[in-house]
Structures are given as C-alpha cells and as structure tokens.
# Entry
Amino acid sequence: MNDKNPLTIRTSIIPFDHFSPALIAPAIETLLTEANAELTALKNTSEQRTFENTLLALDNLGLNLDYAMNIIAHLESVATTSEWRQAYNLALPKVTEFRSKLILDSELWGVLKQYAETEEARSLPAHRKRFLTKTIDSFKRGGADLPPTQKEELAKINTELANLTNSFSQNTLDATNSFEFVTQDATELSGLPESALTLGRASAAAKNLEGWRFTLQAPSFIAIMTYADNRNLRQKFYRAFNTRCLSGNLSNRDNLCK
# Structure
C-alpha cells in the first residue's frame, strides 16, 4: 500500500477524497525542497547549455508543486473548511515567495542569457524561438534586471499582492456562501424550470429546511435571474450579488485600497 502523501503524487484522476488539511503543510515542504533541488540542478549543470536542460527544465520546474497548490486552491474555493483555509493560508506565502524568487534569481537569469547566446538558441525553429523570446521578456518584465535592493522590495510586494488577492477571494467566497433565500411559497418561484426547482428542493433538504432554497452560487443565481417571473425576487438576488463585500467584516475595501 502506498502511504506517500497523495498531494505529492501527480495523477490523471485526482483522488479528492484522499486529501485533508493535515496533508498540506508536509506536502508543500516536501515539494518546495524538491523544486529548489530542481532549480539548483538547472543552474549548476556541467553539461553544455541546450533547450532541454535550460528552457524545458525551467518550464518543468516545480510541476509537482503546482499540481498540489492547484488542488489545494481549488478545494479552498469550492469546499473550504476553517482547517483547510488555515493550512492553505500558511502555505500560500511560501509558494508565492518561491515563484517570485525564480524570476528575480540572478544566477538563473544569467543561465537564460547564456543560453540565448548559443549557436543552438540562434538556430531554434520558430516555435522554440518564440518560447525563448517570451521567456526572456517575462523575466525582464518581472524585474530580472533590477538591482538587488529593488529585487528584495519587489519580492515583498509580490508576496503582499498574493496575500491581498487571497484575502479578497476568500471574502468574496464567504459573502457568496452567506446568502440564502428560502421559501415555501411556490408562486414566488413562478417561471423557474423544473430542473431549478428540483435543485432548490434538494438544497433546502440538505439544510433540513422545508420548501426551496436558492443561493448566490451560479446554478441558483443564473436560474433566478434568467427565468424568475418575480421582478422583486430578481432584484433581491441582483443586489445581493453585486453588493458582496462592500461593508461589514467581509468588506474588501481594505484589500482594494492598500
């Protein structure tokens, strides 16, 4: 039986039922160590610089880390719990710092420029040449040519921006999840197709409620806004959706104004 952390194993069929908050921290630590080892190997190879050991190696750097973080972020956005969110929020700055460090790594930047001057790089086929050009350009835009002090400042800004973006998204998710409309009066739902009514009944039953329950989640919201005959009901949902995070403890004003 494989007892390896499932977040560290890339599979085509993702075993969502095998993941838990307790797996996040050890998985990220393992995968950051792995990604840093890949980075060291890329920079310090004794072989002649080639497309495979430079550009392709850079493109593949941290694939396992990205796989794990994509799963963690996805579950945070669709099925979060307080434990999952806490673990995710602890992991995010570490991964952001690593990703920001790549573009600001002077040795890695030197490796890319060194490869760009090789005969192989000058004679690459068009699609690979474009890949090289876009990679070089992305490093330049990301601050690779900045002096060390400004690189440090930019790395801090990138981490802060990632944290603010995460806070914004989590506030929006929580505000979306906090709204519900429950009714036992079928006339209020005139115009809704049977599929939407079935969904509303199932949603109510899941909360041990009578009647129909609708939320700001897309299947509910779109059904109400598209089919409901009740103008006041459509207005209620429209205003609730478009005023999320404007005030209260889920306000995003601070995240936007920093």
Remarks:
- The mean pLDDT is 93.
- The longest helix spans residues 148-178.
- The radius of gyration is 24 Å.
- The beta strands are 180-183, 212-215.
